[in-house]
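Entry:
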Amino acid sequence: MLGRVVSVVAVLLAAILAGHSLLPELGGVTPVLESVLPWLGVAIVPLVALAAVARSRGAVIASLAPALVWGVMFGPGVLRQPPGGTADFTVATLNVGVANELSGEAVQAAAEGRDVVAAQELTPGGPAARQLNRIYPYRFQVGTVGLWSKYRLDGAKRVDVGLGWARALRAVVKAEKGDVTVYVMHLASARPGETSFRDKTLKEAGEVIGKDKSRRLVLLGDLNTATTDRNRGHLVPPLRDAQEEAGQGFGFTWPSGFPITRPDHILYRGMTATLADVREAAGSDHRAAVADLRF
């Protein structure tokens, strides 16, 4: 009996992993499940153990099916080595947290000498903004999102992504080796049963990016969508994901104490990612995402 139960659960787990994009949204529950999809692999270990206890060869074989599916889906990312090499443009994005309790040292560590830094959940005049103002000569802030740069910013403006209030911006960074159009966005939140508004802002963001003809473009921010979320397809492709191209592992950024998903992203086109990583930012409930890009 135990062997049969293990076999059924194992086959079901393998099917969910492999076919998650085919499942109905179930009122927004499935996209949230997709946000933590890699963690379903944790269930494989007890399944194998129970199959061994049941002394059922069929159950053991069945319990290895989700392990195989998980390995095919996520193994390359876990084993990937960053390509490395020279970088022409370095970026970071950080949701500083609604409490805005980051110290100057934490902001400095997250920025880590990057050419540009995007921040979300900013309090006007708060500690994160003040510290970034000390580090960077050029800045532009719209509501609770902002962009800081070593290089001059041209054409900085607010962007509408369907939120009903300003929480996105666009600016052209006059980098040393050429212009880069940078967007900073903080999209609507996604919770079980409450993803429709987030999905709307993702679609709007995709339409905004799709209309932009800039040769080099970077989207930084808390997009409230995980790498494995079906709705990320509004942005990737046509954009590429720095973590998927040049990062090792999953690059989880939230919650900061024990990250289980990655709502914070660095997406780009017209360049090559040479490195992607995550940095701690004491005082925020997110970790910072960073990337090096080559023209």
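The chain has eight helices and twelve strands.
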